[in-house]
Specification:
By secondary structure, this protein is an alpha/beta fold. 31% of the residues lie in helices and 15% in strands. The strands form 2 sheets. A 5-stranded parallel sheet has the order 2-1-3-4-7, with helices on both faces.
């Protein structure tokens, strides 16, 4: 068993830290290790573009800003999720609309999304809980018909897929976390 929050160690990590600190002098996000990680993720997730952030929370907050949320705009989120899924959009000024989850997947119930949409709805945020994919075909169809953005919270879905597509690459924006 791997203890929670104790990083596994295979032997090369300290060499990489030394390279980043001493050789490259790049502890910020624009060093060679960041570029290698971006490239690896783009290739292995088949993503158009990847931008590393300091956390999944920062990624969701950035996504809310990129969706141009204004006070009074509504964002649909699942009733069961991590707090950041909701708070990132609240910080941008959104009013949250909670949609119940499916008991078999613990994901947002795609059959209940449409009835939650109003003229103020701007974004749907499906959360791929525990790496189990939401029904993205149905969600994307609803979003297209109502001209809504889809921000995938795939925090627990690194390398998980839906019909051969990596979670986080199906909607307009995707947020993945390594924690």
């Amino acid at each position: 068993m791997i203890p929670f929050n104790i990083p596994p160690y295979i032997g090369t990590e300290l060499d990489y830290v030394h390279q980043a600190v001493c050789d490259n002098r790049k502890l910020s996000g624009d060093g060679p290790f960041t570029k290698r990680c971006n490239q690896w993720l783009e290739e292995n997730l088949n993503a158009q573009k990847v931008l590393l952030t300091t956390s999944g929370t920062a990624a969701l907050e950035m996504a809310a800003l990129l969706c141009d949320i204004k006070p009074g705009d509504e964002v649909i989120v699942p009733s069961y999720t991590f707090s950041t899924t909701a708070s990132a959009f609240v910080m941008a000024g959104a009013t949250l609309v909670f949609v119940d989850i499916r008991p078999d997947t613990i994901n947002i119930d795609e059959t209940k999304i449409e009835e939650a949409i109003t003229e103020k709805t701007r974004v749907i945020v499906p959360v791929h809980y525990a790496g189990v994919a939401c029904e993205m075909d149905a969600i994307m169809d609803i979003a297209r018909r109502y001209n809504l953005k889809v921000v995938e919270d795939a925090a627990q879905g690194v390398l998980s897929t839906y019909k051969g597509k990596s979670l986080g690459t199906i909607g307009d924006l995707g947020c993945i976390s390594f924690h």
